[in-house]
Amino acid sequence: MSSEPLETDYRNLIANSQSLIIASSSEQGVAEASYAPFLEYEHTYYIYVSQLARHTGNMLRHCQASIMFIEPETESVNPFARRRLVFECRVGEIDKLDSDYEQLLERLQSRFGETVAVLRSLADFHLLALTPLRGQYVAGFGKAFSINVENGIPLPANQ
Question: Phi/psi at 86 (nearest 5 deg)?
């Protein structure tokens, strides 16, 4: 399989998702799983999350997370071989005074509607940027590829 259909395949997985799965680590090093709706913009994933959620504190404290997009079970031929894309990410907070802050929230509101408008009025929400550092795409049994995060091209995982 050439890299072009693979790239289209994993990009469709992202495009057909409204939320991403988050893996973060607590202060005690305990792995915690969660999810959040996201906005993809300029090769970065933005989430708007409450400081009351454990994953928010974990990501702000450690400045890292792993995110996953996964094929819905209803679309999968085999539950052992669901297509999935995982990125290890650097996490940073977008400050409310940052020039991009309002524009990114407008984009989030366009994508998700009035819920974002309500959340914007709450003081405990943080806009986080998850920037991929490394990626892996699994297209099925024996079909694992590393993703070059600079250009999005999938490469066989052993390269």
Answer: -125, 135
Residues 23 and 87 sit within 8 Å (Cβ to Cβ): no
What pTM does this model have? 0.92
Angle at 65 between CA 79 and CA 147, to 5 degrees: 65
User: What is d(CA 75, CA 155) in angstroms, rounded to the nearest whole number?
Assistant: 25
Do the strands 44-50 and 39-41 form a parallel or antiparallel pair, or are they unpaired?
antiparallel
- Counts for the chain of helices (H) and strands (E), in that order: 4, 9
Residue length, the chain?
159
118-155 confidence digits (pLDDT tens)? 898 878 999 999 999 999 999 988 899 999 888 888 88
Chain centroid to Cα 25, Å, comes to: 16
Output the CA torsion sign for 10, 13, 17, 19: negative
Residue 32 pairs in a beta bridge with 24
CB-count exposure of residue 2 (10 Å: 0-12, 13-18, 19+): exposed
pLDDT tens for 51-79 read 999 999 999 999 999 999 999 999 998 99
